[in-house]
Design goal:
Chain lengths: 375, 531
């Protein structure tokens, strides 16, 4: 079966092993060593790691469409945010009467805005199964509609990039409006509990961290499975020569739509896992700059490698935390320089450097190099 | 310095002559004011009229002070003064006749010339009439405008005589309208005809009142006139929306035109385009800092300076980054995005994270008044004109100059162009510099209507790409048309959707439009389109 195929692969095993080891290490550092011990890892750091892992899952989703489908999506933050908002709506409903205003049904911001009843699209979000289903369905639906329209009329390349950017920009503007019923520019915050577990306890947050790690592992295996499958081969063919693939009789737009939608769903899951750990979701996640930053993670890690996306997301976000702590104004300089340097000097990313150090590259990377040489 | 040396003797002579000339005027003024102060309540109206008709240039000042409760007589000297500051025990006053400052005077020494409300409203009207006699024609016109709806039975006659003697046509029209409003208020049906084409709110309110009156003839004539006015207002509103739309559209087109060159002609996705616009806006600010006190000159000079600043920034970007990423548009996009972050942070660190204000020169502020309901602000009008001029210049460059020819040749077939002896690298640099420079021009224009801050470029980058894609990549005229039409659509949607939702709808519209016509409104034809 296509999903178990990657498990026979050395690189996937290595990735899963490393990820599992990292999860175990963090858990041990947090649980075994008592507070105050120099080896102890605070729950704050654990949640931070959890956020990085959800970003890594988002980066994997972007790498799937950019690395293996050749579509530079500048709007994956939108899918991430929609997944996050779906989760946020569930968390808001869980607050119940514990909000500032103590309204049994309406979230605080609606009471504040004098809404008298719940908008129809909020129905059902008090049930966990419904909300979790929406985490997958809402981004997928958006990706399907957008992708169907775009791929049908063969909007690709830079046009698609610009369109995805416009999509997320439009959504950001829309979500900033109070009338949308998503909390306006404040978004959702003050979450209390998830599935009955209080979000303020260490155990829940550790659990969320581990859940994010597991989701990343599953997402990685799914992507790898797609890449190794026949559909993945067609997808790579589309990336390298769309017209030729079409002439060979493949329904290119269907492949594109499928991969794009799967990627959007993964991004949605990443957003849903991000929200309870960050404790907030607001329209900034829709901003074009966030989406484009995600692309940088992938570019830095190494396009079309999947594990490179994970490395890139972790490295950039760790650097961001360090930089913004020490000298906040330097971060944008560093980020900007990173964009320039990576694209000019490291077209293969860190993964390319690793491969060069080992003296060989994977097939996918070779494909990419050849394509660039031809262009 | 030299001017002052000339002026001083003249001033001294004037000051010497002035008291002799002023002596008789002062005596008259004193008499008029004494009359006003001493007349019984019933006779004050006559005293006011006497002052108004004296033709004394200070009459307005006196009546204004009187109406504001500021005209007083000093008990000891009998001098008339105007109170400037009435806090505390001693009040600051100046002489009403000579305007000379007297300083602080005890409150008890001042005897206020009393006034009542009916006198005050009468003075309001008389002041309006007085302004009709001033020398400045603009002020006369303004006074005539203000008079509409203010005319009462007492004034009607003098207004009529003023109207007949008025030389200025505008003044005459305004006064005729004022009189007609007055007559309609009194129930005169024949006056309604005069108000038929009027757009002023005073005329409308008079007609509204007449339409609900008991006199059926008056009511029907008034409501008929009102419908015709409504019609006119609708046309004017449409014209105003169109103007706002075109002006917004010209801003969009101006912001996008540089991109139309770098993206459309060269195929380079320059995400730092917004920041090049920002640099242009900051050059306008910088020029005004260099030339304090001359905002207009600074702004005019900022046009070439902004072009040069952004163009040089563009050359640096092209040489240091873009030339190494030829044929990899997505990587170019990422790298130039990095440049945009660096430029933003650079401005934040070097200048300030806060917005800077660029002064609007006098000749750009104010508005051109077409009629009562429609006035066009000058700054937007200038930007509209500027945008059209930039487009015309660019079209000339692209179609009529050697550079334009080479640019087109290199875009269509690089290898062939090079083999014909065109230095493609040089053309690349020139094209990118041109596109960037035009972004700088857009920035100079934008500095007049928006805040100049580090985020300026961010706000325009998505819009700019939308305009270029909508208009059809590689087509300058398409960009202009796209910008103007998107701006107009946005303005049309705004009244019933709100500003943000209108923008969202426009974006969604473009996203859907691109599905239908992936190559924009005006697609490029021929082989160049295949790239």
């Amino acid at each position: 079966m296509w999903l178990t195929q990657p498990l026979n692969e050395k690189s996937t095993r290595l990735f899963l092993g490393l990820l599992g080891a990292a999860l175990a290490l963090v858990t041990i550092l947090h649980l075994v060593f008592p507070q105050g011990h120099p080896m102890h890892m605070s729950i704050y750091t654990v949640s931070l790691m959890g956020k990085y892992l959800s970003y890594a899952l988002l980066a994997v989703a972007v790498d799937l469409v950019w690395g293996y489908l050749g579509m530079l999506s500048l709007g994956h933050g939108a899918f991430f945010a929609i997944g996050g908002y779906a989760m946020g709506m569930y968390l808001m409903r869980q607050i119940g009467t514990r909000g500032e205003y103590g309204h049994p049904v309406l979230p605080d911001f609606m009471v504040f805005l004098n809404w008298d009843s719940l908008p129809w699209y909020w129905y059902g979000f008090d049930m966990a199964w419904f909300a979790f289903a929406m985490v997958l369905i809402a981004p997928a639906a958006l990706a399907m509609v957008f992708g169907y329209l775009a791929f049908r009329s063969r909007v690709t390349g830079v046009y698609l990039s610009i369109m995805t950017q416009a999509l997320t920009f439009a959504l950001m503007l829309a979500f900033y409006r109070n009338e949308m019923g998503f909390g306006g520019n404040n978004g959702f915050t003050d979450f209390k509990d998830l599935l009955g577990f209080s979000l303020s306890t260490d155990a829940t947050r550790l659990g969320l961290f581990i859940a994010t790690g597991v989701a990343l592992a599953i997402g990685y295996v799914i992507c790898r499975g797609i890449v190794l499958s026949k559909l993945g081969r067609v997808s790579i063919a589309t990336r390298d020569a769309e017209a030729r693939t079409r002439f060979l009789g493949y329904r290119v737009e269907r492949v594109q739509l499928f991969v794009f939608t799967v990627s959007a769903m993964l991004a949605g899951v990443a957003g849903a896992l991000y929200v309870p750990q960050a404790g907030i979701i607001n329209p900034n996640q829709f901003s074009p700059i966030f989406s484009i930053e995600v692309v940088l993670w992938v570019a830095l890690g190494g396009r079309a490698t999947l594990y490179g996306a994970v490395i890139g997301a972790l490295v950039v976000n760790y650097a961001k935390s360090v930089f913004t702590g020490i000298m906040p104004e330097a971060w944008l300089f560093a980020l900007g320089a990173l964009f320039v340097l990576v694209t000019v000097f490291l077209p293969q990313g860190l993964a390319g450097v690793l491969a060069k150090l080992r003296g060989k590259g994977s097939d996918d990377e070779k494909d990419l190099t050849e394509k660039e040489a031809a262009a | 310095m030299s001017i002052r040396r000339w002026l001083e003797p003249i001033l001294i002579v004037c000051l010497l002559i002035w008291p002799c000339m002023a002596a008789s005027a002062e005596a008259d003024g004193q008499a008029l004011l004494t009359e006003l102060a001493e007349a019984p309540a019933s006779g004050k109206a006559a005293a006011i009229t006497a002052i108004a008709e004296s033709g004394d240039p200070r009459a307005r000042h006196w009546l204004q002070a009187f109406a504001d409760n500021k005209l007083s007589r000093m008990d000891d000297s009998g001098r008339f003064v105007v109170v400037l500051e009435n806090r505390g025990r001693d009040w600051t006053v100046e002489d009403a006749l000579t305007g000379e400052a007297i300083g602080e005077v005890s409150r008890r020494n001042l005897n206020r010339v009393r006034i009542n409300n009916s006198l005050r409203s009468r003075i309001g009207n008389i002041l309006g009439l007085l302004d009709l006699k001033v020398d400045d024609p603009a002020k006369r016109r303004e006074a005539a405008r203000e008079l509409r709806g203010e005319v009462d039975a007492v004034m009607a006659e003098s207004v009529e005589s003023l109207m007949e003697s008025a030389e200025d046509e505008d003044v005459r029209d305004y006064l005729a309208e004022a009189l007609a409003i007055h007559r309609v208020q009194r129930g005169d049906v024949s006056a309604i005809d005069t108000l038929r084409g009027s757009l002023s709110s005073e005329a409308r309110s008079a007609l509204n009142k007449a339409a609900s009156s008991d006199d059926p003839e008056l009511a029907s004539a008034a409501s008929e006139a009102l419908t015709s006015i409504e019609q006119l207002l609708k046309i004017n509103n449409a014209a105003e929306t169109l103007y706002f739309g075109l002006s917004l559209g010209s801003v969009l087109a101006l912001a996008a035109v540089g991109l139309a060159i770098t993206f459309g002609v060269m195929g380079v996705i320059n995400m730092a385009h917004g920041e090049l616009i920002m640099l242009g806006a900051y050059s306008a600010w910088g020029m005004q800092q260099l030339l304090p006190g001359q905002p207009g000159l600074a702004l005019v000079l900022a046009v070439p300076v902004g072009f040069m600043v952004s163009a040089s920034a563009g050359i640096v970007i092209e040489r240091s980054i873009i030339q190494f990423l030829k044929g990899r548009p997505l990587e170019t996009l990422l790298a130039t995005f990095g440049v945009s972050l660096i430029l933003q942070q650079l401005v934040r660190t070097v200048i300030s994270p806060l917005n800077r204000t660029v002064v609007t020169p006098e000749w750009m502020s104010g508005s051109l008044m077409i009629n009562e309901a429609l006035s066009l602000t000058f700054n937007r009008l200038y930007i509209l004109g500027f945008a059209l001029a930039v487009f015309a210049a660019l079209l000339l460059v692209m179609r009529r100059t050697r550079l334009g020819l080479e640019v087109r040749a290199v875009t269509q077939n690089r290898a062939m162009a090079r083999s014909m002896g065109i230095r493609a690298t040089r053309v690349d640099i020139m094209t990118f510099a041109l596109g960037s420079g035009v972004a700088g021009l857009a920035g100079v224009a934008l500095s007049q209507i928006t805040n100049v801050g580090p985020n300026l470029g961010q706000n325009y980058i998505v819009d700019s790409f939308m305009v270029v894609v909508f208009g059809g990549v590689g087509n300058l005229l398409g960009t202009l048309v796209a910008g103007l039409s998107l701006g107009t659509i946005n303005q049309l949607l705004e009244p019933w959707a709100g500003a943000v939702l209108a923008k969202v709808m426009v974006l969604v519209f473009i996203i859907l439009f691109i599905q239908k016509r992936p190559r924009g409104l005006f697609p490029q034809k021929g082989r160049a389109a295949e790239g």
